[in-house]
Amino acid sequence: MAPPKSKNSPSVKKQPAPNAAGGPKARTRALKGGPRSLYSPAEVHEIFRRFSVQRPEPNGELDYINAFTLLIAVVLSAQATDAGVNKATKALFPVADTPQKMLALGEAKVGDYIRTIGLWRNKAKNVIALSKALIDEHGGKVPENRDELVKLPGVGRKTANVVLNVAFGQHTMAVDTHIFRIGNRIGLAPGKTPEQVEQGILRVIPADYMRHAHHWLILHGRYVCKARKPDCPACVIADICKSKEKTTDVPAPLVPIAPLTEAIPVGA
Ligand code: SF4
User: Fold this and answer.
1) Does the beta carbon of 230 lie inside 6 Å of ligand 1?
2) Among 13-17, 42-46, 71-75, whose mean pLDDT is lowest?
């Protein structure tokens, strides 16, 4: 299966070409200022080729309608589950899918919609401040670059990377708990901080796979390479994996799998 199409992103450093994909001798890549990946370019290419066969069009599990509602959903998802956020936004987004409508709704009413989510008071404040900043400083549009995004209330680097990747197709890597664990556990992109892992992953993953790499890694971490105990017999890269924690060298059959949760836009 052909790899997913990619778009170039002016705000993200150009990825090195997967020059060793296809079989030159294995070697490791030095990560500038960080530990080395344990995998050769050919091995990394094969890992993501298999992920792309399993999930040709991976979806995130947060529901959203447009770039603005995606941004709000990601802000609300801090220290909360995607399912919990979706439950709250199912009623919120149909009535407030633009910064203008969200601002008009006001903090108290936004709070009423999201009070099942942890830290809801603070998040309601941020949602209103964020909507106001988008209107005042960006003409009501979500900016397409990280420097501007992280200046918005409640928006950190991880949130900005998710929005840039999912809404605008940029080659960013939002390192969450799953990606941080996989980067270190299997030695794909070791790092002591999320930013080190982010830089390591951006350096090793072939550009053709960057568009979906974020979702593939999250879904792999959530359902297979789990935190407490990795499910190695269900893993399609078990023969390539170099983790000391793995329990088998036999990869699971490589077949497309149905999404566990369809990310259907709210109101659709
Ligand atoms: S073989 Fe096990 S440890 Fe390695 S990636 Fe797969 S699930 Fe994770």
Assistant:
1) yes
2) 13-17
* Cβ neighbours of residue 253 closer than 8 Å, sequence gap 6 or more: 236
Q: At what angle do helices 157-166 and 67-76 cross, to 10 degrees?
A: 150
To test ligand 1's pocket by mutation, which of 54, 188, 245 has the most ligand atoms within 8 angstroms of CB? 245
The CATH class given to the 67-166 domain equals: mainly alpha
CATH 1.10.340.30 domain locations along the chain: 67-166
φ/ψ (deg, to 5) at 34:
-145, 175
pTM for the structure as a whole: 0.75
Q: Going by CA atoms, what residue is nearest to atom 8 of ligand 1?
A: 225
Using DSSP, state whether 34 is helix, strand or coil.
Answer: strand
The total number of residues shown for the chain amounts to: 268
Q: What is the pLDDT of residues 137-167, one digit of tens each?
A: 999 999 999 999 999 999 999 999 999 999 9
Architecture of the domain made up of 26-58+171-259 = Orthogonal Bundle (1.10)
* Angle at the Cα of 141 from the Cα atoms of 139 and 144, rounded to 5 degrees: 120
Instruction: Specify the range with the lowest mean pLDDT, choosing from 41-55, 204-218, 220-234.
Output: 204-218
* Residue that wins the pLDDT comparison between 141 and 79: 141
Listed in order, the ranges of the chain carrying CATH 1.10.1670.10 are 26-58+171-259
* 231 is known as an active-site residue: no
Find out whether the beta carbon of 181 lies less than 6 Å from any atom of ligand 1: no
